[in-house]
From TrEMBL:
The keyword Calcium applies. This is Phospholipid scramblase. Signal peptide: none annotated. Keywords: Calcium, Lipoprotein, Palmitate. It comes from Mastacembelus armatus (zig-zag eel). May mediate accelerated ATP-independent bidirectional transbilayer migration of phospholipids upon binding calcium ions that results in a loss of phospholipid asymmetry in the plasma membrane. It comes from the Eukaryota. Belongs to the phospholipid scramblase family. Residues 1-48 are annotated as: Disordered. GO terms for molecular function: phospholipid scramblase activity. Its cofactor is Ca(2+). Residues 10-19 have a biased composition (Pro residues).
Length: 315
């Protein structure tokens, strides 16, 4: 099974097209019987009481510009006239749309200054749904010295905003070492939604050669596991990090670093990622998985100047 793909990219089908009845075709095959055993109870972090009969929450997009601009549902779909704005219980403000989707696409924007001169700039990303419609945007907040001296290990704050330019998620990454031989100082990331309220953590687990992470809740209890390949390098192919329950057995989703083409891979560090998870997963864990995707990007696929990107937990 391959992760969700970008239209026009090699080895990937186009975005799913809407079908009669409002359904769409997923851009990745689903294994027989789906993920997990339907006869078993849901693991921790799933089926958080979202009511499928509740009105759909629409991600708004700005119409017009300047002071006093109006906002309307745009780009995703149009809300029925008179539909009540019901917010599911326990969902952080601004994350309502995540309750409706089971995959996210993340595209890093090309920075001309970085591409031409190799001068490291703040990373910027567009976060899209499976139809390629932008639902969030993310931007790293950092200083010039930290970016160009600490490279991919740099600490940062990252703000994730919705289409109305409201900050809905904040990611905080402290500086940590790169070697797996120092298990007391492994990589971690804190996820806040809304900013100031911690909803989870991404923590690297020690392993001699495999990239492994724990997806944790606000109290640092492990909810999910994430495991990558021994050699995280996408040489003409995708790199998949399998998402599993905390027991680490059956896969229930994945984070995929997608092959962007030879020219982009060699001359830029702009990356495409796909995140796939169960539809009924706790929306807070979906947000934490977004944070995990950004951490993986910085750890294994971020290039600074002429320096080669990391490919294993050793380098």
């Amino acid at each position: 099974m391959s992760g969700p793909g970008y239209p026009g990219s090699p080895n990937h089908p186009p975005y799913p097209m809407p079908q009669p009845g409002g359904h769409s075709v997923a851009p990745y095959p689903v294994p027989m019987g789906g993920y997990g055993d339907p006869g078993q109870g849901p693991p921790v972090g799933f089926n958080m009481g979202y009511n499928p009969n509740q009105p759909v929450m629409y991600q708004p997009a700005p119409v017009g510009s300047g002071p006093g601009q109006e906002y309307a549902p745009g780009g995703i779909s149009t809300a029925p006239v008179g539909a009540p704005a019901v917010v599911p219980v326990g969902v952080p403000p601004g994350l309502e749309y995540l309750t409706q989707i089971d995959q996210i696409l993340i595209h890093q924007k090309v920075e001309l200054l970085e591409a031409i001169f190799g001068f490291e700039t703040n990373n910027e990303y567009e976060i899209k749904n499976s139809l390629g419609q932008k639902i969030y945007k993310a931007k790293e907040k950092n200083d010039c010295c930290t970016r160009n001296c600490c490279g991919s290990l740099r600490s940062f704050d990252m703000k994730i905003k919705d289409n109305m330019d409201r900050e809905v998620i904040r990611l905080i990454r402290p500086y940590r070492c790169a070697s797996c031989w120092c298990p007391c100082c492994l990589q971690e990331l804190e996820v806040q939604a809304p900013p100031g309220t911690t909803i989870g953590y991404v923590k690297q687990d020690w392993h001699p050669f495999l990239p492994r992470f724990s997806i944790q809740g606000a109290n640092k209890e492990t909810v999910l596991k994430l495991e990558g390949p021994c050699f995280a390098c996408n040489c003409c192919g995708d790199v998949n990090f399998e998402l599993k329950g905390k027991d680490g057995e059956k896969p229930i989703g994945r984070i995929s670093k997608q092959w962007s083409g030879l020219l982009k891979e060699v001359f830029t560090d702009t990356d495409n990622f796909g995140i796939q998870f169960p539809l009924d997963m706790d929306v807070k864990m979906k947000a934490v998985l977004m944070g995990a995707c950004f951490l993986i990007d910085f750890m294994f696929f971020e290039k600074v100047g002429e320096a080669n990107q990391r490919s294993t937990v050793f380098s």
